[in-house]
Amino acid sequence: MTQKKFLSLIFCCTLMVLGTRDCLSDWVLMSNGIGIPGGIYSLSVNNGVIYCGTQNQVLYRSTNEGQSWGFIPFTGGPERSILFNGNNMFIGTDAFGVYVSSNNGTNWQQTPLNNQKVYAMASSGNNIFAGTDGSGVYLSTNNGVSWVQTSLNNRIVRTILINGNNIFAGTDGNGVYLSTNNGTSWVQTSLNTTSVRALLYKGNTVFAGTYTDELFYSTNNGLTWFPRTVSNHGVWSLAAAPPQFVNFMFAGTGDGICVSSDNGTSWIPRNEGFPNANVGVMCIAGNYIFAGTGGWGLFRRPLDELLGIKIISSEIPNQFSLLQNYPNPFNPSTHIEFSIPKRSFVKLFVYDILGRELKILVNETVQPGVFGAVFDAQNLPSGIYYYSLEAGDYKETKKMVLVK
Q1: What is the mean pLDDT of the chain?
Q2: In what order do the strands lie in the sheet with 148-149?
Q3: pLDDT tens-digit readout, 211-264
Q4: Domain co-membership, 179 together with 230
Q5: Are both 376 and 268 inside the same structural domain?
Q6: Same domain for 333 and 294?
């Protein structure tokens, strides 16, 4: 057994002892049709289809959550960024600027922004922004027919984030810039001396991932920033969990994936089966999270294994409810389903006939919906157990039977 696998096993067992989430399986390399193409430069999801840009200058597409991949004809070079806006698909390339397709990648046209390395793109309505390698941010208001260089014109822009009227640009060595007037003018925020690789807006908070070991956050649109430590290998990418899970987010670091269940306050590495590799891009598609590495390929893992809870339905139920587990009796695992009609802090836990709490299955704020969790009792003896749901003023307990 390798040292990495041994440490992963220790980590999983520690989670079980502490009564947190089960470590059910590893990250899986999704190489069917892609292989290991060097670096995974970009990931994007549109109408359930996943798009993957690579260092080997091939653009891939999967319609089955990454089980298999086909390639899209594209000859513009490595795909640094992918953006969908309306019926148009834009590709920011490694040296030849921005290309656009209006027929889902069948045909491509190079736009007049044709001599730049384009690291990042973002859109707001008809406005498309492109972050470049040394020439700052460009703006197109006509689907790439023409481009105008904004006043942020001499920076390496790695990432762009748009939230309402606020446009954030993360740069190399100069931190984060903010524009509130569609790029006409930019102000350097107080995070101004570090290299920012990733930006994420969650709730009323802006997060900035840096090449150092720190994740910075601001609750006042960049006026002030505060650090939080994630990994000692920097934060290369950020992703938010589906909106039902209010406090969950993911960080791709220089040596794997970290998960936070408290809106970025604390982080836990979840690298079971994952190589010691930098994670430059992530995306969430269906029930999976995808992580693109700098040289090991593309990996996938079920979201519910990292969240400890699965979305069964996003329809808003009429009332709180806790269903009987199934199967029951069970050996060694069983499913527990519950409904939440309004945003609530939810605790779902299991205890024995003496009232001793054995495992916390859910302990977080969730949006309305129907959810499921798995209780794994492989280390427990046969007998009667109880599980309880607490959500606001609602409390309910049910009995289940483990038979081995």
Answers
A1: 91
A2: 118-124, 127-132, 137-140, 148-149
A3: 887 899 999 999 999 999 998 899 999 999 998 888 899 999 999 999 998 899
A4: yes
A5: no
A6: no
